[in-house]
Design a protein that fits this description.
The chain is an alpha/beta fold. The chain has a ten-stranded mixed β-sheet with strand order 1-8-2-3-7-4-6-5-9-10, with helices on both faces. It has a four-stranded parallel β-sheet with strand order 11-14-12-13. The structure holds threonylcarbamoyladenylate (TXA) and magnesium ion. Required for the formation of a threonylcarbamoyl group on adenosine at position 37 (t(6)A37) in tRNAs that read codons beginning with adenine.
């Protein structure tokens, strides 16, 4: 790994956009904000750059990447859209939705980025900085979340710097992201499948489809045969153990609360953070990864997390928390 590489940090703006596009064109690695989390971008057509990207993240090479494009025309040169995929793209792009689709015949995305699958994951991000960089670069940009593999996803440029300084070329700092959890991933096969809950709720997608989303096969979560390959059980793990659905606090635990209700024995907590005092799931999603990182630094015995409703964005929040609780 290229530790010892100088990682430049630039504030978002016209100069940073031009620099980022140039670095991508030369096969470099650029972290930039999207509306969901910060991504680590590389030229989707450059296998050497993508190999460096896997290496910089310490990511298993079988875990494929999302191609980020600026418009539907570019998306349709990469993937084959059926009617349902088109409807979802028109309803939700740009935005926090990724579609997994069959590859187009002369798909410009390198095999390495799709891990040898005959499908490709694709999205149009809504963040202005991300779109400006993709447009200036002029091609598709593959971008996983800009964290070390297995770590909590980054929602600020400081998080990216903490994980990847010395391993990547450039970080474009556009401030904290808005959504805070990754995009929702839908596989558009004969019946659309929810491969990863995320920043766009199941209910919104099902309303446009006019049918329920299917679940992926159960064995999707084994490390050996990932169906939604990134859905490894051990993703998103802080070092500190995570205890879910806590109704009270044990001495020496950190408390991650949600909503206005008082938690039993909360005076035992070494530190308390509340994802959303007023019980707002969007606010909780935006705070989730940053708070996990902060609490992880406090050397608590465990992070006790109070229950979060499994509705709307709560589905994605609970998914990430369950993965954090599995540990590594
Ligand atoms: O919000 C997001 O989606 C962020 C921002 C940067 O766009 N990106 C992101 O990328 O979360 P990453 O690499 O951390 O997660 C991508 C997920 C992985 O779980 C991967 O396995 C899955 O997408 N994926 C990629 N290509 C796939 C494919 N052809 N079939 C099934 N799953 C795929
Ligand atoms: Mg990730």
């Amino acid at each position: 790994v290229d530790t010892g590489l100088k990682t430049h940090v630039l504030s978002a703006g016209a100069a940073a956009t031009a620099t980022a596009a140039g670095v991508l064109a030369e096969g470099g690695l650029v972290a930039f904000p999207t509306e969901t989390v910060y991504g680590l971008g590389a030229d989707a057509g450059n296998a050497a750059a993508i190999a460096r990207l896997y290496q910089a993240k310490g990511r298993p090479a079988f875990n494929p990447l999302i191609a980020h494009v600026a418009d539907l025309g570019a998306a349709r040169r990469i993937a084959l859209f059926n009617g349902q995929a088109l409807r979802l793209a028109e309803a939700f792009w740009p935005g926090p939705l990724t579609l997994v689709l069959p590859k187009a015949l002369s798909c410009p995305v390198a095999e390495l980025a799709t891990a040898g699958l005959d499908t490709v994951a694709i999205r149009i991000p809504a963040h202005k900085v991300a779109r400006d960089i993709i447009k200036a670069f002029g091609g598709a940009v593959v971008a996983p979340s800009a964290n070390l593999s297995g770590h909590v996803s980054p929602t600020t440029a400081e998080h990216v710097n903490g994980d990847l300084a010395g391993r990547i070329d450039l970080i474009v700092d556009g401030g904290p992201v808005e959504v805070g959890v990754e995009s929702t991933i839908v596989g558009c096969f004969s019946d659309p499948v929810l491969l990863r809950p995320g920043g766009l709720t199941r209910a919104e997608i099902e309303r446009v489809l006019g049918q329920p989303l299917q679940s992926p096969p159960q064995d999707a979560e084994t490390d050996a045969q990932p169906v939604a390959p990134g859905m490894l059980a051990s993703h998103y793990a802080p070092r500190t153990p995570v205890r879910l659905n806590a109704s009270d606090v044990h001495v020496g635990e950190a408390l991650l609360a949600f909503g206005p209700a008082k938690v039993a024995r909360s005076e035992c907590a070494s530190v308390v953070m509340n994802l959303s005092e007023r019980g707002d799931l969007a606010e909780a999603a935006a705070n989730l990864f940053g708070y996990l990182r902060t609490l992880d630094k406090r050397n608590a015995d465990a992070i006790a997390v109070t229950p979060i409703p499994e509705e709307g964005l709560g589905e994605a929040i609970n998914d990430r928390l369950r993965r954090a609780a599995v540990g590594r």
